Amino acid sequence: MNIKLSTAILSLVLSAAGLLSASADNNVSLHDNNSTNPQAIYYIDAPRFVRPLVEKWITEYQKVQPAAHFAVAKSAANRDASILHVQLSDNTAGNGQKTVYFAQYAILPVTTKGSDADKALSRNELNVKKLKQLFFSGDDSNGDNTDAGSKKATPFNSLVVYTGSGTQSVSRLFAAYYGQDASTFRGKRIIGDDQFLNTAIAKDPKGVTINAVSNLYDLSTRQLKSGLTLLSLDVDKSLQTILSGNASLDELLSSLETTTTKNIPIERIGLTSTDDNDAVDSFVDWVAANSQTYNHQYGLLNLNKSIAKR
To answer: Is the pTM of this model over 0.70?
Structure first.
């Protein structure tokens, strides 16, 4: 056999070996990405104001279960693939889904400190009727703002209400709490996360909005975010002092857990599983047992019978 023929045969053998090796590598990669493999990633779909808490769960859970791989779903594709979902209300869990309630959250009305809206509302202690006048339109039976064209006016007509339009916005829960549909909000709808509501009122001197406590307070300093002021509510005097904006987030949470008021919507929040999976079930059980350790840290209320959904 001549040298050229020997070299050609050797090259063919090496090429075939390379192809087999590449094929083996591809099989390992596919196996690693298989959903039944311990390395599978289980995505959790959560509203942005709850994500820091969910990320804390994941960090703490991996300390006891290093082989578990959970992640917050941030892309549309990962949200669609999620088998765990954080639900913002008792009413949003689907039939047949397993839901573990781990916290509650409060929704408060807010404006920009020193704005025209702040000055106009500074002497108003808002009760249920006035809150509905301020935020909703078209309900004559409650003395609310009437439809466009009506001559009837309220003290709040000059103010601009900003609310969220997404499915994960607390705005729709706020509306439902007051027996309203989200379509009856006055003012403007903001696309995107509820954190943009704070930005919207900062740009409009007449702007008011509502938001979850976690979006209103700085979780590091435990104080109301710079430039914001909570609207005055018709509530117990001790709670009114807390809501003045000078109290810390921790004082607010403790007060809300022990005070019952009709003027502050408080909703239960749960983790719902859409897949019967041992790894997922173990994680959900861990959340049920441990989550309340971290709730206050991330601006959420602990579950408490005195603030059960009203």
So the answer is: yes
